[in-house]
Amino acid sequence: MKTTIELNDELVQQTMQLSHIHTPEELIRTALYEFLRKLKKRELTTLRGNVQWEGDLDQMRTTSDE
Q1: 40 falls in which pLDDT band (50, 70, 90)?
Q2: 62: in domain
Q3: Who is most buried in 14, 24, 47, 58, counting CB within 10 A?
Q4: Burial 24-54 (b: 16+ CB within 10 A, else e)
Q5: How large is the average pLDDT for residues 40-66?
Q6: Domain of 32, in residue numbers
Q7: Using only C-alpha atoms, what is the Rg of the chain?
Q8: Taking a C-beta distance cutoff of 8 angstroms, is the pair 24, 16 a contact?
Q9: Is the pLDDT assigned to residue 48 strictly greater than 60?
């Protein structure tokens, strides 16, 4: 998708310097990826306490796949 947006030059330059990202396009892709990852992680936390696990960790730790 192509779009035209106006970005804060100082913010872009500072972020590119600190992240060692070389182009604004790469910076935007990385920012979108990281934002999506954060949202998915937050979504996973809503499952806490809602999933019933019925396993035996001690058995899993000692069982071999061989």
Answers
A1: very high
A2: no
A3: 24
A4: eeebeeeeeeeeeeeeeeeeeeeeeeeeeee
A5: 83
A6: 18-48
A7: 21
A8: yes
A9: yes
